Amino acid sequence: MNATSPAATAVPVVELLIGGRFVPSRSLEFRDVVDPATQAVLARVPFATADEVDAAIGAAQAAFASWRRTPIGARARIFLKYQQLIRAHLQELAAILTAEQGKTLADAEGDVFRGLEVVEHAAAIGNLQLGEFANNVAGGVDTYTLLQPLGVCAGITPFNFPAMIPLWMFPMAIATGNTFVLKPSEQDPLVTMRLVELALEAGIPPGVLNVVHGGEAVVNALCDHPDVKAVSFVGSTRVGTHVYRRASQAGKRVQCMMGAKNHAVVLPDANKEQTLNALAGAAFGAAGQRCMAASTAVLVGAARAWIPDLVAKARTLKVNAGVEPGTDVGPVISCAARERVEGLIAAGVDEGATLELDGRRPEVPGYERGNFVGPTIFSGAKPGMRIYDEEIFGPVLVLLAADTLEEAIALVNANPNGNGTAIFTQSGAAARRFQEDIDVGQVGINVPIPVPVPLFSFTGSRASKLGDLGPYGKQVVTFYTQTKTVTARWFDDTAPAAGVNTTISLK
Length: 507
Fold this sequence. Notes:
alpha/beta, 2 domains, 36% helix
């Protein structure tokens, strides 16, 4: 972060969104938004001041009074329009995303599309935000529930999915009648801001959606502010644990989706070619910068003989800038990220794992300054090695061995993380045993990255998640609403009075 005036540069300065208006920040602290393939500075993003954060929360609080009373059909129609606008601008959004984040254009379109699915789900809010009703539970008494919005909610999103994860958050929060303050990643906020512009164009009223930028101080302000009722977070375990503790101690609802070490268990009866393709795609796609990446594979029994074939498959992947046709693996987000990944690869060698494929410092003509790491594969890894214990968040696949399915399940369950896992097999019995015995929130059966569609909830578990409700699907409606139970009796004026009743009974 540089503490210099934005006037000193010719690049655009990202604005804040407060009360329906895009406004320049008065901050003196800015960070460059850098193309990870070229190091070109695309924009400068301000770290919002305390007063600006307060103003955004204040605008959301003021807007809540009327927004909560907006008919549910009117809210739904905004998101019907919004999904149309996202579809119409899909390629533009993908191009912005690739420039600032680095992933391939095809993957960037997928990033936007998976967020679009949640917007479509938000448009069905009339069928989702339903209470319960029981008629005549006692003499003339009815009981029913109302799912009412909480108030101002906040979202803190990571760099790796700058379209999808913001779209996980504010559409469902707003559709359920809340107002929202979003803090996107300061590393790549441009596509998020374009999505916010389209949201306003779709009809989200002033103050219902607000955006502030910044680092730890802004995160802490959102966690501490008494008018913020709920906080949703996706990011690292270190920051997520801090957010959960700080916001929950302030009395807020909190959901934190955090780090992972996702295992793919490969049985020798699996379809070999399909499995190798799935492993390579899930480990090296998005340069491994996915919280659901299959970064670890457990080869069971004779499947250990597949290592040379897996290495050969990885060698076919093309490392290049995300804008270049045919690219499979783009750059990691920053120079610091590349150095960290390279350091972990060196640690793996030092700790005795076998480096089957070394992706450090690949040659990428025309992009010599890019943050590139090519596909990297280790075999012979074990718990206790840094490459196994830490989330690398780069294009590195770590291979472990097991003699039996039972041993593989025990290995996965001993890892503290529980975001996602997968099994590759043609045995229904083995798959069923795996899904029943594995202690991980999301399970794929011959599916390497089992992120559910929005009809279902994202259900990471254990050290990968804090809070008991997921960020979309049915669970998020519960997260963003307060259940109010009403018990009602209406008296018939012609009926005789029943007299005083001093018992708890509703007769």
